[in-house]
Amino acid sequence: MAQSDIRLKWSILAAVTLVSFITNVDATIVVIGLPRLMSGLHISVVTGLWTITSYIITSTVFLLPAGRWSDLIGTKKIFIAGLAIFTVATFLCGIANSGSALIVYRFIQGTGAALALATATPIIVKAFPANELGKALGINSTSWVIGSIVGPVAGGALINAFGWRSIFFVTIPFAIIGMIAAMIVLRADVSPKQQVKSDWLGMITFGLGLVGLLVSLSEGQSWGWLSLRTLGLFVLTLVLFISFVWIELRVKAPLFNLSLVKHRHYSAGLGVTFSYSIGYFATTFLLTLYLQGALRLSPLSAGLLLIPLSAPQLVMGPLGGAAADRFGPARLVLVGVFFLGLGVYFLGSLGPQLSVMAIILPQLLMSTANGLGWPALTKAVLSSAPREQTGAASGMFYTFRNVGMSLSLTLALVVAEVSVPPSVASQAFLGTAGVLSTNIKSALVNSTDKGFQFFILFYAIAFICGLVLLRPHRSGQMSNSTVSTQKQA
């Protein structure tokens, strides 16, 4: 391989990886800044929570069409378009003068993030040979770690010094740098093709189904789980998802390429991804509820105590990716999932008094396990799909990840609401509940313990699905001849 090609692939990785950094900073920094944001815009708790949910919904729904569009139009064009949309919407979020306007801008921002993130991984897959793919994906995953560290800490400092609007403005320079770099280093990867109609019916049914599921779960406690409103919404959600599958099986250019599910390793990998994400993304929510809600720590203090959940991955991410290249991804996925479940088990016995070691040590274990497991899982899933369909495969992969994340946060709130009233749980999470009584504090501690114990179930499901990855690949997925050809290129 020529020296210029070697430099180019690492330049591509640097440009693409920057997207993961800024999108994760944006996601974590908004959670920390939510109380000040609510106060500044004079909005309710429900409206404040929608500023987070709206971003997750659109960043999930548009992952499917983004993967499809990247296969048809080209990953470079979709990647740059996504970054441009994200940058403009982030600026609009910073100047929003009402809660409703901010929610609209967050919907748009999530759309841009989806377009960029859905194409980031295919760009890396196409730029690197198979024997270096795990290392590249591990480095890319490290950017998420840095974002997870920078977001809570920098967010607390920025809010104290410059107010809540600064949490949006701070990401804009990084987004602009990433967009310029992408224009320079990325290569056009497809020739113009005949236009194909977008699967708008699929997008609508999937999007509305996801919204219906999240609303029914989050409002079920206050509406009543057996109330006509809750049951009716669950039925409507089921009908929407069934309609989505029916549409995808019949449309000529489906967004959700269900033929990929026929690949055993790919479908098993999606099962691991879904359960893994449900289990993992609840950790930050439950710890924040415990630290800020029950123990009444400041956002900055709570953010500092969450650093161990991310910091070890700065080292373990690249090492985990390289290990996946050398030893194969399946065993590393299982090891990572096992120790993640063990870490959650230890967090399920927190008490009413702050014990720094009881919080830090399980997080260190989970961060190490995630550094081993997630790059390996990404490689296992995407390598098991045909290479010419990496865009669609990546879109489905990250859709399962984001749906798992959305359900994770919602289920964590549902578990918390079993022990405390919904309004108190929400206010405690946001740090706006005032002085807590002994009973409420005890209930919050108990709800976080039960929450961590509940999510062990999803790691067990992920482990069972991961056992399928140990079985040999069938020919016709990503053939050895294809890999050999790529190595010789």
Plain-language structure description:
Keywords: Cell membrane, Membrane, Transmembrane, Transmembrane helix, Transport. It comes from Alicyclobacillus tolerans. It is found in: Cell membrane. This is EmrB/QacA subfamily drug resistance transporter. The protein is mainly alpha-helical. 80% of the residues lie in helices and 0% in strands. Helix 11 packs antiparallel against helix 18. It is globular and about 60 Å long. The C terminus is likely disordered.
Secondary structure topology:
Layout: H1 3-41, H2 45-61, H3 63-73, H4 75-95, H5 99-127, H6 130-162, H7 166-169, H8 172-185, H9 200-223, H10 228-250, H11 264-294, H12 299-305, H13 313-327, H14 329-347, H15 356-383, H16 390-419, H17 422-430, H18 438-466, H19 480-488
Domain Major facilitator superfamily (MFS) profile: 12-474
Membrane topology: Multi-pass membrane protein
Keywords: Cell membrane, Membrane, Transmembrane, Transmembrane helix, Transport
Give the DSSP E fraction (strand runs of 2 or more residues). under 5%
Number of helices: 19
- Rounded to the nearest angstrom, the distance between the terminal CA atoms is 7 Å
Class from secondary-structure proportions: mainly alpha
What helical percentage do the residues reach? over 70%
Please tell me how large the radius of gyration is: 22 Å
Overall mean pLDDT: 79
N-to-C order of helices and strands: HHHHHHHHHHHHHHHHHHH
User: How many runs of DSSP E, i.e. beta strands?
Assistant: 0
Largest sheet: none
Extract low-pLDDT stretches.
475-489
Shape: globular
